[in-house]
Amino acid sequence: MYDLIVIGGGPAGLAAACAAWEKGLKHILIVERDKELGGILNQCIHNGFGLHYFKEELTGPEYAGRFIQMLSATGVEVRLDTMVLTVTASHQVHMVGQSTGYRIEAAKAIILAMGCRERTRGAIAIPGQRPAGIFTAGAAQRYVNIEGWMPGRRVVVLGSGDIGLIMARRMTLEGAKVLACVEVMPYSGGLNRNIVQCLQDYDIPLYLSHTVTDIRGRDRVEQVVVSKVDEDRQPIPGTEMVFDCDTLLLSVGLIPENELTRQAGIVMDARTNGAVVYENMETSLPGVFACGNVAHVHDLVDFVTAESQRAGVAAADYVLGAPPADCGVLEVEACDGVSYTVPQRIRPDRVEKACDLFFRVNRIFGASQILVQSGDTLIARLPREHLAPGEMEHIVLPRALLDKAWTNITVSIQEVATQ
């Protein structure tokens, strides 16, 4: 029996395994379905990674390489090219690999670090014909950066998530003409720095409150029709724009990869599409933890690392020490202006010094205050100059504040009136 099995060898799994090893676990297994460690970072050859954690700017492969090197200094076992099929409530992991065949391994603790996947055309029901030339932005990124294939020459990007913005720049640098980036919401879903560096620096227009309403072409995409949408995101007749193109890239959201989580009977959060977790990233199934994009979609890998290290330490504590006695649980509720929070539950007695709380807002805010309340009692008021859905927010709740919370905690946004 393993002390710990980590499912996923991307940035979350690597950080969690290294942290658990340093905490004292010596019989750890990482299971990765790809042929090498690193996850999505291997195809993210642009820079901008590591500014928070390593205090320097790295590319995705360089960031992954740092953790792979750390892992090589440990005795953590790695199984590549191995797919996990099922995780059971009794901590059994069913897996199949080319070299090992079908195996069932047991563990004292499990960390879920499977990452996320992209929404496809079918998930958002774009009307029109079904020609070649329609790719998710991540698939196009892999074709260009790893396989050395060029998806197309005249490109329209639907969605302004970070991968879409980065691929608009990447396709331009490879010689393609990116005609437009189209976003159905009245604001971008990506980081502001990516809007500037990937669109504005290359004179690529961004059409907010617009969407693709038709795809034309028999064998290959020939045209896409873009229409303006109203407040209900319904196309407005007469606003159509026709772009002559051969490629449509979709950057329309990411979905945490949680089929294994659901199979195990773990309580899910419909807002994050990830597991409901406690302050130490433990799920509703004792001894099973979730971290990284499988818990909620992050915007910076540095935050994935910090969260996953917390999960790794917690998993080691679970294995090495007797589980603490049951204690009170505070439910964290997302209220006005907040889409979700992670963690969704906090056990104050298990918080040593402070609890990290992550959330996203559901619209753009100017000068605002983050209000943390317990019932009618205000326990924290945190000012912000700007809040946007594309940027994940992070606050720290000291143990002393949590001890003042006698009922559930609510997190809301109050915009400050300006004169």
3D architecture notes:
By secondary structure, the protein is α/β, with parallel strands linked by helices. The chain has three domains: 188 residues, FAD/NAD(P)-binding domain; 133 residues, FAD/NAD(P)-binding domain (3-Layer(bba) Sandwich), CATH 3.50.50; 93 residues, Immunoglobulin-like, CATH 2.60.40. Helices cover 21% and strands 33% of the residues. It contains nine helices and 27 strands. The strands form seven sheets. Strands 1, 2, 3, 4, 5, 6 and 19 form a seven-stranded mixed β-sheet that branches. Strands 8-15-9-10-11 form a five-stranded parallel β-sheet. A five-stranded mixed β-sheet has the order 22-20-27-24-25, with no helix packed on it. α1 links the parallel β1 and β2. It is globular. The termini are far apart. 44% of the residues are buried. The mean pLDDT is 93.
Question: Layout of helices and strands, plus pairs?
Answer:
Layout: E1 2-7, H1 11-23, E2 28-31, H2 60-72, E3 77-79, E4 82-87, E5 92-97, E6 101-112, E7 116-118, H3 121-124, E8 134-136, H4 137-147, E9 154-158, H5 162-173, E10 177-183, H6 192-199, E11 206-208, E12 210-216, E13 223-228, E14 241-244, E15 247-250, E16 254-256, H7 259-263, E17 268-269, E18 274-275, E19 288-290, H8 301-320, E20 330-334, E21 338-342, E22 345-346, E23 354-361, E24 368-374, E25 377-384, E26 393-398, H9 399-402, E27 409-415
Helix pairs in contact: 1-2, 1-8, 4-5, 5-6
